[in-house]
Amino acid sequence: MKLDEIKDNDGARKKRMRVGRGIGSGKGKTAGRGVKGQKARTGVAIKGFEGGQMPLHRRLPKRGFHNIFALDFNEVSLGRIQVAIDAGKLDASQPVTEASLVAAGVLRRAKDGVRVLGGGELTTKVSLDVAYATKSVTAAIEKLGGTVKVSAPKAEAAEAV
What is the Cα–Cα distance from 142 to 149, expressed in whole angstroms? Predict the structure, then answer.
């Protein structure tokens, strides 16, 4: 086999149908769209249109709501923090904050705050400075002699000013 002999398998690339190129092509005149009507024209937008009948998506009852003021938190488990400390990415002697977790690569980006959840095992004494920590996290850290400081999320801090 030579480089100039390399080619795709048969049928790997299908040529597009060229429509509207004369009657002899088989796809001339109406270009496969049939005759007249809304669907034969350009700019058809009838998904969900039921001929004037009330569409299904409007007949069904509405439930719930979406809170536009809800805060979006990063969630981190204790085990994930321990893995970062073991890998040398987090310094256990410094307080673990949102910024330090982003710098260590534990979080991709900072959101409205960090929630620390109790999954996994912690073996190192650390001090947390986060927006939220569960009771099990607080108990586990204080058992090892560390501290947990729960600070207000960004939105609540802005309202207080």
Answer: 11
Whether 110 is covered by a domain: the verdict is yes
Q: Which residue has the tokens 């920590």?
A: 133
pTM: 0.58
Cα separation of the two ends of the chain: 73
Summarised one tens digit per residue, pLDDT across range 118-146 is 888 888 899 999 999 999 999 999 999 99
Domain of 153? Answer: 74-160
When the pLDDT of each residue in the chain is averaged and rounded to a whole number, the result is: 89
Count of CA atoms in the C-beta half-sphere (13 A) of 97:
7
Q: Which two tokens stand for residue 57?
A: 């998506």
Any idea of the CA torsion for 80, 81, 83, 89, to the nearest 10 degrees?
A: 130
Name the DSSP letter for residue 50: B
Q: Is 95 inside any structural domain?
A: yes
147 beta partners: 127
